[in-house]
Amino acid sequence: METQEVVHTALENIPDETGIHFTWEDNPMAGAIGQLKLTFKNREIHFNTEIKKEILEHQLPNLEIAAKNKQPFLLVAHYLRPKIKTELRKRNIAYLEKNGNIFINHENWFILIDANKPVDLAKETGNRAFTKTGLKVVYLYLTEKNWLNKPQREIAKKTGAGLGNISNVNHGLQKEKFLLKVNRTQKQLNNKQELLEKWMKAYAVTLQPELKIGQFRFADEKNYIHYRKIQLDENTWWGGEPAGDILTDYLRPGELTLYTNNTRTGLMKQFKLIPDPKGNVRIFKAFWNTVNQQEQNTVHPLLVYVDLMNTGDNRCYETAQMIWDKYLAHEF
Q1: What angle do CA 322, 323, 327 make, to 5 degrees?
Q2: Distance, CA of 102 to CA of 66 (rounded, Å)
Q3: What's the CA gap between 314 and 171, in Å, rounded?
Q4: Average per-residue pLDDT for the chain
Q5: Are 60 and 91 in contact (CB under 8 A)?
Q6: Phi/psi of residue 83, each to 5°?
Q7: Comparing C-alpha atoms, which of 194, 197, 190, 178 is closest to residue 309?
Q8: CA-CA distance, 320 to 200, in Å (whole number)?
Q9: Could you tell me where the DSSP H helices lie in the chain?
């Protein structure tokens, strides 16, 4: 099985000089995929194990709950991004990567290896619906469902995609049963919630990093505290935490997110921003072609939901659920 292959590769990549020995065991407890028996200096621990390709920020709260319910718990993953590994260590969730990197802090055992290079992830099956271009088209389908049955030439113009890409995207969605033909001329989305989950994961990894214009701080920090007083033009929208705050009045933003069609230089002048890699203002290029998203100068609630879920923060997670219930649930 592929899952066991991941485990065995990971165990082979743990350096012998650590003196750690792992054995994979079947017959796991309910809800776990398997157990790993760790032997070190004549002591044993049996870890209830889950295996994932990777973990994204929005999955952390549920993973933390699972870890508490299945103690002692260990996550095995093909690959974990540095930020995710930091979060796992903060939450004291043991993990093992396919490359042999490992973290365990259990009782009086502390093991940390983080020097091994990542093992290349297997490529997706080539589904064009979840490429950078495909994600823009799927976003249009999810947020403006009337576009699904418009001519492909119009969809291509709306999304900035090549005409041939629209057919490839639709084929990719059909392949995974996300798009169904109702009749000769009409199509409809299927399993929309599952599609959104997949879009959310691919967006965080594939598209959003390419959209980042930069990270900044305000020359006057009062603008951060009173961000709602900032006048946005028709080409700039609040996203992420400030949008969540605006839509729910529940969240106090830890950082500000903007999406825009304006230039970096123009934004710095307009909002008196100073480039700062640790700044609390993140700005991304808008990837849609719509004049105005919301009356409140926020991006579409779906993108707000996605941004909040991808933070991995519990308060953001709660805010995302409120947005889901108020703005999105009836569409899914």
Answers
A1: 125
A2: 19
A3: 37
A4: 87
A5: yes
A6: -60, -40
A7: 197
A8: 13
A9: 2-12, 60-69, 82-90, 132-143, 152-159, 163-175, 192-202, 208-211, 222-225, 240-248, 264-271, 301-309, 314-323
Q: What is the DSSP string of 8-62?
A: HHHHHTS-GGG--EEEEESSPPTT-SEEEEEEETTEEEEEEEEEES---GGGHHH
What residue has token string 């009337």? 146
* 115 torsion bin: left (phi>0), alpha (psi -120 to 50), beta (else): alpha
Judged by average pLDDT, the poorest of 64-73, 91-100, 207-216, 308-317 is 308-317
Q: Is pLDDT at 106 greater than 70 in this prediction?
A: yes
Amino acid letter, 202: A
Q: What is the pLDDT of residues 147-194, one digit of tens each?
A: 999 999 999 999 998 888 899 999 999 999 999 988 878 899 999 999
Largest CA distance in the chain: 68
The pTM score is 0.71
Residues in the chain: 332
Q: What is the DSSP letter of 278?
A: T
For residue 70 the two structure tokens come to: 């299945």
**In the chain, % of residues over pLDDT 90:** 55
- CA distance linking residue 302 with residue 283, whole number of Å: 18
**H-helix or E-strand containing 96?**
strand 94-97
Residue 124 clears pLDDT 50, i.e. is over it: no
Confidence band, pLDDT 50/70/90 cuts, at residue 20: confident
- What architecture does CATH give domain 211-331? 2-Layer Sandwich (3.30)
- Classify residue 296 by its DSSP letter: T
Looking at 1.10.260, 2.60.40, 2.30.30, 1.10.10, the CATH number of the domain 128-190 comes to 1.10.10
Look-up of token digits 């929005």: 58
DSSP string, 234-251: TTEEEEHHHHHHHHHS--
- 259 neighbors 237 (Cβ within 8 angstroms): yes
Determine phi and psi for 90, rounding to 5 degrees: -60, -35
